[in-house]
Amino acid sequence: MKCPFCSSENTRVIDSRPADDNNSIRRRRLCDDCGKRFTTYEKVETIPLIVIKKDNIREQYDRTKIEAGVLRACHKRPISVDQISKLVDEVEVEIFNREDKEIPSSVIGEILMDKLKELDSVAYVRFASVYREFKDVNTFMNELKKMLQ
To answer: 139 pLDDT exceeds 80?
Structure first.
């Protein structure tokens, strides 16, 4: 493992324990060259998941795309980075537990919207407005009415 401070490959593990999610291992490491400590997380490698986009193009699953969408939806909302990370983790667990090799982006979007609805209603509406491609105010109002019922 390369040291993030000095790029030395001369590092060693000084502590290992399960991470908070119990799905990964947290390792404290020490760089023998610069003496700085840092933390790494080790996860089980899963089979590659292919996402089928709206236009039927297939691409490999990318967690950062989900994170970016949630971050945009939660912009200037009272939602911590930890809450966002936990939400994305929950979505990932649900997606990978399906054990499908391919998943439509629409399924991911619906799972994500369900989780956002529980977290923050404004973030949910923001995400839904982009995801569902509201064409006019009436479509937007219909979605709000569904949410208020």
So the answer is: no
